[in-house]
Amino acid sequence: MRRFVRIAGFCLTLALFAGLMSLPTAAATRLKFSTQGLGTSMYVYASTIAQIAEKYLPAGYAIDIETTGGGINGPMLVGAKKADIALANSAPANWVMNGEILGRPPAPGFRAIVGGMDRPFVVVIFTEQFIKKSGITSLEEIAARKYPVRVAIKTKGMLGEAAGEQILKAVGASYENIKSWGGSVTHAGSPEIVSMLRDNRADITIDHIPAGQASIGELSLTTAIRFIAIPEKVRNELVKLGWEKTVMPKDTWSKQPEDKPTLSSSVVVVVREDLPADVAYALTKAICENKKTLVEAHASIQPFDPRTAWELEKCGVPLHPAAEKYYKDVGFMK
Fold it and tell me: Domain spans of the chain?
């Protein structure tokens, strides 16, 4: 009888254990990471960060990559709590948070955790055919002569297009002015812009791209073009709009034998301002401690310096308090 009781008790224990094992586990908290589409550098950045972060996030957290387009979409979605993490550029992140430049209500519900992840450049390109035909070698001359220039530029909503529009307006050659002078402004994707410049269907383009970007790299190898400096007065004016002054080193591109004063708006990682502190801290730590892996995934991350990733000019917007704690913990920030 005692043996039977012991066996029955053992079976009951097994049954209870099996029942516990079969109970559904708590669902993971899935963080939505907003980025650009497949094939873009932003997608590579995001997917690599997500992979790295798995080893750092608190138990029960996971990351889902969501392709939601470029430009201002990421910080707007995070500010509206429709995404938890996003990649953006520092200038448009600032525009979204403050609302003034975009002419929209401010969306302040997000904070930065890591800035300066790359070093893109604003490129201003004239074709040599245009220079030979017009004798114009600077942006200021286009406005001074009210020249009917043919501009090929990215579609609305892209940062390269915003850079071009702001620069042209700053020199007195706004889209409206160019059209009134008999010129044109055509919005298109990178392949079409390259084709237009190569086939003499456009005279100039302006874009915001990392060194080695394929389309401009191809253009510099196959077409007679000239990289044009951005005037200091214009650079100073655009710094007020969130841009950072920089210099594009000579030989960044073929047919660029000199350093060119220009502007930049580097990639920043933003998160919801109410993201739990341990999660924001873990994400910051994961990115800053794995530069080598990030660079192996995409060479344009090489300029990233975790020691200065907290600086406002690189982030565009204030830090999440947990990110600030990380930078202070490791001695990068006082």
Answer: 29-119+266-329, 121-264
